[in-house]
Design goal:
By secondary structure, the chain is an all-alpha fold. It contains 15 helices and no strands. Its cofactor is Mg(2+).
């Protein structure tokens, strides 16, 4: 399939980054070299080339150092795990093998003080992350993260099962499951930990905040589909990607599928901005929730600021993609109503 050229992204949120990102990156590299969940110098370069410190420093520009450091470690770990065990390798095409590996991995995170079984560096590194979170986060935050981590692994297993069966999910199914498979739940669950602020359960579990969290995950996941299309085309695993879902099930040619992908994400982006402003303006909203909502916006913007430069998407050994025309002045589809997708139509209800 021909690689498609990206269009500008609609995201009227100012860029931001944590001022100590360079020191966080330096310490993270020392941590990576301690656990060595990579194969040789090429593997190490690929892990470092994810620019994970920059990635999460953009998500949480006002984070506390300890929480941000632990979160950045998980992002480096997560990208490496995704590349070697989700997108390629022996586990990536066999859901039975993947689940047999993922179950003990999740258990290691939830019980990080127990000796890990075997000598898997991914398990040892994840246990260290679990211990770091327990040291700097509240029990509620830790539980939210471990639950979110399980949701991610389940989403990956669903994706691998589709691949093994030669099944292209429908737009409805893909919309429901892609945020989990893309790592959205654990990535956003770490925002509270990085910020050092626990959002009260009555707020975090409210329909409006659930919707906003899910919207941020979906926009970022769909954006990743757009950013990663060249990489995945080169590496021959573009089967489950928003563009291909639209091509297969909507019968759209590639250029039209790309345009439709932008229209879908812009409709969700517009609703996110509207609902986020409503919740933030409520005088009953806690300061912790307001900080969390700001970071959801930073996550959407920061995801693309990072993606336009990172070797993971631009190609190793290539120059970063230019960002001069990265941002659109308005949504490509300004219609305010809900998208006709069952899993997300409720986001446009009165929440």
């Amino acid at each position: 399939m021909t690689t498609l050229e990206l269009r500008p992204f609609y995201c009227p949120i100012e860029p931001a980054i944590h001022p100590e990102v360079d020191e966080v990156e330096r310490r993270a590299i020392e941590w990576i070299d301690r656990f060595r969940f990579y194969s040789g110098e090429t593997g190490r370069a690929r892990v470092l080339g994810t620019n994970s410190a920059e990635f999460y420093a953009r998500f949480a520009p006002a984070a506390c150092r300890e929480g941000l450091q632990a979160a950045v470690h998980w992002v480096y770990w997560g990208f490496a795990f995704d590349d070697t065990r989700c997108d390629s390798g022996e586990f990536s095409a066999d859901p039975v093998k993947f689940l047999a590996m993922a179950g003990p991995l999740q258990q290691a995170l939830e019980n990080p003080w127990h000796a890990p079984p075997g000598d898997d560096p991914y398990v040892a590194a994840l246990q260290d992350i679990g211990r770091a979170f327990a040291a700097c986060a509240t029990p509620v935050q830790v539980r939210r993260f471990t639950d979110a981590h399980r949701a991610w692994l389940f989403g990956v297993a669903w994706q691998i099962a589709n691949c093994a069966a030669g099944r292209m999910p429908t737009l409805a199914d893909y919309t429901a499951m892609r945020p989990n498979a893309a790592g959205g739940p654990p990535t956003l669950a770490m925002l509270e930990i990085a910020l050092g602020q626990e959002v009260p359960a009555a707020e975090m579990d409210s329909p409006a905040v659930r919707a906003l969290t899910e919207m941020a995950m979906l926009v970022a996941a769909w954006d990743n589909d757009l950013h990663s299309h060249r990489k995945e085309t080169t590496e021959d695993h573009t089967d489950q990607n928003l563009i291909n879902v639209l091509r297969v099930h909507e019968g759209l040619p590639p250029a039209d599928a790309l345009a439709e992908a932008y229209r879908l994400r812009d409709r969700v982006m517009t609703r996110f901005l509207e609902l986020r402003d409503q919740v933030a303006a409520d005088p009953r909203t806690s300061s912790a929730l307001r900080a969390y909502l700001r970071c959801l916006g930073h996550a959407i913007r920061g995801n693309t600021d990072w993606a336009l430069r990172v070797p993971r998407y631009s190609g190793y050994g290539e120059s970063p993609r230019p960002g001069g025309a990265a941002w659109a002045d308005g949504p490509s589809d300004p219609r305010p109503g809900p998208l006709p997708i069952p899993a997300i139509a409720w986001w446009w209800d009165s929440l």
